[in-house]
Amino acid sequence: MEKMNSISGRTAKPVLGVVALMALLVAVSSPGQEEIPKRGIVTPLASANLVFDGEPACLKVARENGDPDKGASTFLLEAPSGCVVPAHYHTAEEQLMVVQGDVLAGMDSMAEATLGPGGFARMPSKAMHWFTCKSKNTCLMFVTFDRTYDIVWAKQAK
Length: 158
Prior knowledge:
By secondary structure, the protein is mainly beta. 10% of the residues lie in helices and 37% in strands. The protein has 2 domains: 1-30; 45-153, Sandwich (Jelly Rolls), CATH 2.60.120.
């Protein structure tokens, strides 16, 4: 039996079909929905899985959230005193926030600045940047990338 809409006088079947079609279109046209975590994430600092991950050899990283091969991601970085991350850029925008230590950060067309705990830097896509841990103790920083991760190192002068 078809239900009659009391306002329009039409049957409900066509409306249900349109609603079903719209739901299908939203599901198909919403890329990345499956990447949203279904649960929260809580990681005490002592539980962070910090590992050496290539260049530079002094830097340890722990992925905190996301998949850098597929989209946005967040990392914890640990740099010992004197660790230098040479000039490089990413296709993604990078945001850096210092948790511990003093980090000398530089970016093309800007003066270098020393960032202490709570210090923040945003590097736009493809902006050449670098940093050095200037503290006597270890520097800890969070970095986020707004899309897939890549890194392009500056060419060293010969």
